[in-house]
Automatic annotation (TrEMBL):
Its main location: cytoplasm. Its EC number is 6.1.1.10. It is found in: Cytoplasm. It comes from Natrarchaeobius chitinivorans. One of its GO terms (biological process) is methionyl-tRNA aminoacylation. Coiled coil: none annotated. Homodimer. Residues 589-687 form the TRNA-binding domain. InterPro entries: aa-tRNA-synth_I_CS, Anticodon_Met, Met-tRNA-synth_bsu_C, Met-tRNA_ligase_1, Met-tRNA_synth, Methionyl/Leucyl_tRNA_Synth, MetRS_core, MetRS_Zn. Belongs to the class-I aminoacyl-tRNA synthetase family. Pfam families: Anticodon_3, tRNA-synt_1g, tRNA_bind. GO terms for cellular component: aminoacyl-tRNA synthetase multienzyme complex; cytosol. This is methionine--tRNA ligase.
Length: 687
């Protein structure tokens, strides 16, 4: 890869984390798939040769567990059923992979085995004994996902292979404390077995260099540092199961039926899927070897729960077998529903099929997922919030400006007036194009989605200020100029919004009378003169009505209530909002908290503390030194000058040898800093 700004002369591959082929998808799952599709389209809009690939994760314990619950169904049959169902769902949300495969494809199994043979030949694999969970009542071995217990690092409830509700760490077999069988509910015990391990420590120096040059979101670049700069333990790559990719080498003594851990064969599907795409279109269109074995730009778009796999295990494996490393990893936050977590057991979810059945266009959800907050932050979905954002931004801004402009142009001029676009509007579009280029190179998914809306918002204000309908008689030349500018702004808005709302913008493109497909356009098309004649337009969007939203809210509430007793009220979501505390404090007690507006003056990382940052904050009467656990979520230099809320009467404490004299206030696990909407001065008290 070049590290040059996009577009580069090298081919790019954009991937999304593989969905498990073991159940339906809800709209929360689509946050990364829509983001990956949007980023891929944005790269292509800039002129970057790009392949967007993915596939179903067919192996692993979840598939085996769920298949066992079905009568007369093998894991293979079960996985292929869900693979085909999931594959058919993506195009309905305009998520258009260039290739969508699965990890059980023969090509992927063979590539995975080739990787493992190379690791073995290069001396990166060792044999060692590990503790494996065992159900003594049923006398059965318990693979990772058959076990739950306590995380040895943070004490939270955790699965056998991952602390999914706490610190997010990958867990090796035998690490979980107080293990319990998820199959029977019996307490589990540990027994020793011999397995194969990848010596990650062989590549620790490389990983430390890699993480420093990795691009993408701050959480993906900073979260893995604790592991990479700590004691990097060997990674167990085999499992005692029947379903998966067979271990290709000589198994340890007494282990005849080992398969590879799912996180060995899952990421190789990224390469296999690219390979299949190249075989279909030909290497002259896209050469997978150039992308993966030479200088390609590899971009992974994932959920934050699998950061470690994509920034530690995967690049180490690629390096060891001589393949290209990822250029960027973009990791999303989680998504909640009405302030609480998605829960499949309680049917607390808006299912993807359900969304479409309600008659909503997929591009509306795409816009909501892309623009509702910073990509790496947690976001919330509710039907009222969805309605408000769609009606305000899409219907009232984009749709209203496009329809009123094109309708007026058609009725009064038969299409685009035959005059040049004004310099002011050209300058505004050129500025939007540069903002778009910057957003792509900053991996700012939200900004990619908002630039086109902001441009049409400018257009709405422009047409309202100039009132061309009043100029027709007084100054027809000026009227023609205003309308010509507005048609150009409609066209530019369609180009810039195409990655987010491809189907709706393609329809608007056709209304503009354009001959070429919008999907084939590059960003320069935003400045190309529009077609002169075009037909009378139709309104591109319809408002979401209050009655429909109220009905959907009631349906969701009834469904959750009806399943509450059956599911035991448990929430098996990715993320949930803590309940409100019943403990209250008096107003006098609240007055004891001295919270002030502060302005960050300087920032610096704290040595040997991957999560901590040293900040100097102007709180009005003095500058305070504060230590905050925000380093993994922010580029520290970007925080300089930001106004924040600081608790200033907290007792000083020392962290890693640095005194902290105050506390920043932030929301959630992603440390979303509290700030002010206006220009409050440092030192002003929070009341």
């Amino acid at each position: 890869m070049t590290r040059d700004p996009y577009p580069t002369s090298d081919p790019a591959v954009v991937t999304c984390g593989l969905p498990y082929a073991n159940g339906d998808l809800h709209i929360g799952h689509f946050r990364t798939y829509v983001a990956g599709d949007t980023f891929s389209r944005a790269l292509e809009l800039l002129g970057q040769k790009t392949a967007f690939v993915c596939g179903s994760d067919m192996h692993g314990t979840p598939v085996t567990v769920n298949a066992e619950e079905e009568e007369d169904t093998t894991p293979e049959e079960f996985a292929y059923y869900w693979h085909e169902r999931i594959e058919s769902l993506f195009p309905r949300f305009n998520v258009e992979f260039d290739n969508y495969g699965n990890t059980h494809d023969e090509e992927n199994r063979e590539l995975t085995k080739e990787f493992v043979r190379t690791l073995e030949a290069e001396g990166h694999l060792v044999e060692s004994k590990i503790k494996v969970a065992w159900d003594p009542v049923e006398e059965m071995s318990l693979p990772d996902r058959y076990v739950e217990g306590e995380c040895p690092y943070c004490g939270e409830r955790a699965r056998g292979d991952e602390c999914d509700e706490g610190c997010q760490r990958h867990l090796e077999p035998g690490e979980i404390e107080n293990p319990v069988s998820t199959v029977t509910g019996n307490p589990a015990e540990y027994r020793e077995e011999s397995h194969k391990f990848f010596r990650l420590s062989d590549l620790q120096e490389y990983l430390q260099e890699f993480i420093d040059r990795l691009e993408g979101t701050e959480n993906a670049k900073n979260q893995p540092r604790e592991w990479i700069y700590g004691e990097l333990e060997d990674w167990c790559i085999t499992r005692d199961m029947d379903w998966g990719v067979d271990y290709p080498g000589e198994p340890p003594e007494g282990q005849d039926d080992l398969v590879l851990y799912v996180w060995v064969d899952a990421p190789t599907e990224y390469i296999t899927s690219t390979m299949q795409y190249s075989e279909r279109v030909g290497p002259e269109v896209f050469d997978w070897e150039e992308a993966w074995q030479e200088d390609g730009e590899i971009v992974h778009v994932i959920g934050r729960d699998i950061i470690q796999h994509h920034t530690v295990f995967w690049p180490a494996m690629l390096r060891a077998v001589g393949y290209n490393e990822p250029r960027a990893v973009l990791a999303s936050g989680f998504m909640t529903l009405d302030g609480a977590g998605f829960s499949t057991s309680r049917n607390r979810a808006v299912w993807a099929e359900e969304y479409l059945d309600e008659g909503f266009h997929p591009d509306l959800l795409r816009y909501y997922l892309i623009t509702n907050g910073n990509f790496q932050k947690d976001i919330d979905f509710s039907w009222p919030k969805f309605q408000q954002r769609v009606n305000s931004d899409i219907v009232d801004t984009v749709g209203n400006f496009a329809y009123r402009s094109l309708l007026f142009a058609h009725r009064e001029f038969g299409g685009t007036p035959n005059v040049e676009c004004s310099d002011r509007v050209i300058d505004r579009i050129e500025a939007a194009i540069e903002e778009f280029r910057a957003a792509v190179n900053d991996y700012d998914i939200r900004e990619i989605g908002t630039i086109g809306v902001d441009l049409t918002r400018f257009g709405n204000q422009y047409i309202q200020n100039h009132e061309p309908w009043n100029l027709l008689d007084e100054d027809p030349e000026q009227a023609a100029q205003v309308v010509r500018d507005c048609v150009q702004l409609v066209k530019a808005g369609a180009v810039l919004l195409a990655p987010v709302a491809p189907e709706k913008m393609a329809a608007l493109w056709e209304q503009l009378g354009e001959d070429d497909a919008l999907a084939d356009a590059t960003i320069e098309a935003a400045l190309a003169p529009p077609a002169e004649p075009f037909e009378e337009p139709t309104e591109p969007f319809e408002s979401i009505e209050d009655d429909h939203v109220a009905e959907l809210e009631a349906q969701l509430a009834d469904r959750i209530e009806s399943r509450g007793d059956e599911a035991g009220g448990e929430d098996d979501s990715e993320a949930a909002i803590d309940p409100l505390s019943d403990d209250r404090i008096s107003f006098e007690e609240f007055q004891d908290f001295d919270m002030r507006v502060g302005r960050i003056e300087t920032t610096a990382p704290i040595e040997n503390a991957d999560k901590l940052a040293h900040l100097e904050i102007d709180v009005g009467t003095e500058t305070r030194q504060v230590v905050a656990g925000i380093r993994e979520f922010y580029d520290l230099e970007d925080l300089i000058g930001e106004r924040v809320v600081v608790l200033v009467n907290l007792e000083p404490t020392e962290l890693f040898g640095v005194e902290s004299n105050g506390m920043l206030l932030a929301a959630g696990d992603q440390a979303d800093l509290l700030t002010t909407i206006g220009d409050a001065e440092p030192g002003e008290r929070i009341q």
